[in-house]
Amino acid sequence: MALKDFPREEYVLQGNAACAGCPATMALRTVLKALGKKTVMVVPACCTAVIQSLYPTCSFDIPVMNIAFEACAAGASGIRAALDQQGKHDHTVLSWAGDGGTYDIGLQALSGALERQTNFIYICYNNQIYSNTGIQRSGATPKGAWTTTTVGGKQEFRKDMSEIIRAHHLPYAAQASASRPLDLFEKVKKAKDIKGPRYIEILAPCPPGWRFGMEKTVEMGDLAIDTGAYALFESIDDNVVFNGKSKLILEEKIKPKPIEEWIKNQGRFKHLFYPKRDEKCLAEIQEHYDQMWDRYRKEYL
Fold first, then answer.
1. Residue 1 falls within a domain, yes or no?
2. Cβ-proximal residues to 289 (8 Å cutoff; 6+ apart), any chain
3. DSSP string spanning 7-45?
4. Residue 100 in contact with residue 70, Cβ under 8 Å?
5. What angle is formed at CA 236 by the lines to CA 288 and CA 204, rounded to 5 degrees?
6. Would you give the DSSP letter of residue 268?
7. pTM > 0.85
8. What is the CATH number of the domain that holds 237?
9. What is the pLDDT of residues 228-263, one digit of tens each?
10. CB–CB of 132/49 below 8 Å?
11. How far is Cα 193 from Cα 13, in angstroms, rounded to an integer?
12. Three-state DSSP class for residue 133
């Protein structure tokens, strides 16, 4: 499918409160075009809870339930049960949460819903920080990144959420990027037609949180893929298939760009370059991603 063939309907309407260049809004437009009108969305505390506009108005043209930070998947489970009781089996229940509400605060509810085989789609738009509440570090924040709670750079590597999700043996799980709408659209369409718990993570480069110009959102997403900092793949009944450039990197048909090409364009890593290069941390970051791809090759080739 080409972009010109996308559905014309818009479910993210004008008047929303998104930042300029917001990847969450870009991704949500694509996701809702793929899912269609018969979608009920559950949103915990996150940027999207603000983007949708203030009560009692809403700039999303579908039903939305806002819920506590830790309860997104639990709320979706209740909505799914209610719709099934009404015979509305053709409605999609969508949990739409940030990385803070997925990797950290909401992990217990998400794991429980996956274990119960809840028939819903859980999407994490991963901007690698608690962006809405002031740019604090999350379990998805990469090593070395500045946040308001890691002013000298985060000391730990990010949590590997994809491994945690795949340990639940879902019928469908995937990683996508807001910068690749065609790939994202196709993955959401595929997930829609599968029954049971489905999980999709979307890389969402955040201009204010990552400290780059708002016009570079797509570029930052693409660089994450080109450098191997983020992989595009699908897991269907535990069979993992890599997509696009990630597949070529996995098969060693192309070499990823140095990770420095991605992080040097983000102000949150500025302290690794100025006033003096932190060669030790930069080497550790590059080694981390090299080892990640070595592990992928051992498991999936």
1. no
2. 227, 228, 229, 256, 259
3. ----SB-TT--PPTT-HHHHHHHHHHHHH-SSEEEEE-S
4. no
5. 50
6. G
7. yes
8. 3.40.50.970
9. 999 999 999 999 999 999 999 999 999 999 999 999
10. yes
11. 25
12. coil
Q: What's the CA gap between 204 and 177, in Å, rounded?
A: 7
CA distance 203 to 180: 10
Is 2 inside a domain boundary? no
Question: HSE (CB half, 13 Å, CA atoms) of 179?
Answer: 22
**Cβ distance 3 to 188 under 8 Å?**
no
Among candidate residues 47, 43, 61, the one with its CA nearest the CA of residue 18:
47
Number of structural domains the chain divides into:
1
The tens digit of pLDDT for each residue in 114-136 reads: 999 999 999 999 999 999 999 99
CB 51 within 8 A of CB 17: yes
- Structural domain boundaries, residue 188: 7-300
Place of tokens 């859980």: 122
Instruction: Retrieve residue 288's tokens.
Output: 């981390």
> Under a CB-based contact definition with an 8 Å cutoff, are residues 185 and 1 in contact?
yes
What number of other Cβ atoms are within 10 A of residue 264's Cβ? 14
